[in-house]
Automatic annotation (TrEMBL):
<dbReference type="InterPro" id="IPR054364">
    <property type="entry name" value="Ca3427-like_PBP2"/>
</dbReference>
<comment type="similarity">
    <text>Belongs to the bacterial solute-binding protein SsuA/TauA family.</text>
</comment>
<feature type="domain" description="Ca3427-like PBP 2">
    <location>
        <begin position="91"/>
        <end position="180"/>
    </location>
</feature>
<dbReference type="Pfam" id="PF22384">
    <property type="entry name" value="PBP2_Ca3427_like"/>
</dbReference>
<dbReference type="GO" id="GO:0042597">
    <property type="term" value="C:periplasmic space"/>
</dbReference>
<keyword id="KW-0732">Signal</keyword>
<protein>
    <submittedName>
        <fullName>ABC transporter substrate-binding protein</fullName>
    </submittedName>
</protein>
Length: 283
């Protein structure tokens, strides 16, 4: 039985993986799949793929596309979540900032350079007409826990993270959300190292088969809402709202979608050139 290690953020998007592993669905297809949490997010996942610490990753689309263009020897196997990711824009509850306009020229708290929180700060800035060189500054705070501690202490002025995962901290009065910024493309994809694809493509396809079957029924399963609420400290109403907005997928990233991502990354100065689809997409 082939052992594969997959990494992803410890968030509700990835609960179907945990359930399928617990129910030994992957083992039934001849794959021992091991899950690793990466709370620091996309930048750390890219690092782990490059270092061969993991074989596959469930990762933000813009983050893996940028890193592949910059030399990460991996490819995108398929879309995992096709709905946009809704990034909440948060400040410390006691902050004087009241609007996104107030944040121009201040420091965005990011998990690491190359992370989703880093790249989406550019998307947000561009959407508001800011100067991407002068009006964007950064403070590395590692992860969500780092932001929960750092923002109230003045380490960073605002923090972008998925709005439903941060909602409990807004409710607790640690963060105050002053805006949102949706991704203009499918939010999550499944990526695999090139050497893993070359040597074990049938096993990778088995992994995709299992997770696609799991996500196809996830929203309709009677225990899903209660399980998410309990495991991630969410209010049932927030879970219901999140599920209504979230669409899992089983298809490849299209050439048009990939083109949109690369065009935006070039426009923002985050990559210098676009690669051909065959250099980024596995299938």
């Amino acid at each position: 039985m082939k052992k594969l290690i997959i990494g992803g953020v410890p968030e509700h998007f990835n609960l179907p993986w945990q359930i399928a592993i617990g129910e030994k669905k992957f083992e039934a297809e001849g794959v021992e799949l091991v899950w690793r949490d990466f709370p620091k997010g996309t930048g750390d996942l890219n690092r782990a793929l490059r270092a061969k610490e993991i074989d596959l990753a469930v990762i933000l689309t813009e983050g893996i596309v940028r890193d592949i263009v910059q030399g990460n020897p991996a490819k995108i196997a398929q879309v995992y979540v096709k709905s946009p990711l809704l990034w909440g824009i948060h400040v410390a509850a006691g902050s004087d900032y009241q609007s996104i306009a107030d944040l121009k020229g201040t420091h965005a708290a990011i998990s690491r350079y190359g992370s989703g929180s880093h790249l989406m700060a550019f998307v947000n800035a561009e959407s508001h007409g800011w100067n991407l060189t002068e009006d964007l500054k950064f403070e590395v705070i590692d992860d969500l826990n780092g932001a929960l501690k750092g923002l109230p202490e003045g380490r960073g002025d605002y923090f972008m993270w998925e709005k439903f995962m941060t909602k409990p901290y807004v409710d607790q009065g640690i963060f105050r959300r002053i805006g949102e910024c949706p991704t203009p493309w499918p939010s999550f994809v499944i990526a695999a190292r090139n050497d893993v694809l070359d040597a074990h493509e049938p096993d990778v396809r088995s992994v995709l088969k299992v997770i696609n079957a799991a996500t196809a029924t996830f929203k309709d399963a009677p225990q899903t809402e209660a399980l998410i609420a309990e495991r991630f400290g969410q209010k049932p109403a927030d879970v219901k709202a999140w599920l209504s907005l979230t669409q899992w997928a089983s298809e490849p990233l299209t050439h048009d979608e990939l083109g949109d991502v690369q065009e935006k990354l070039m426009q923002l100065g985050l990559i210098e050139e676009a690669l051909a689809a065959r250099d980024i997409l596995a299938f």
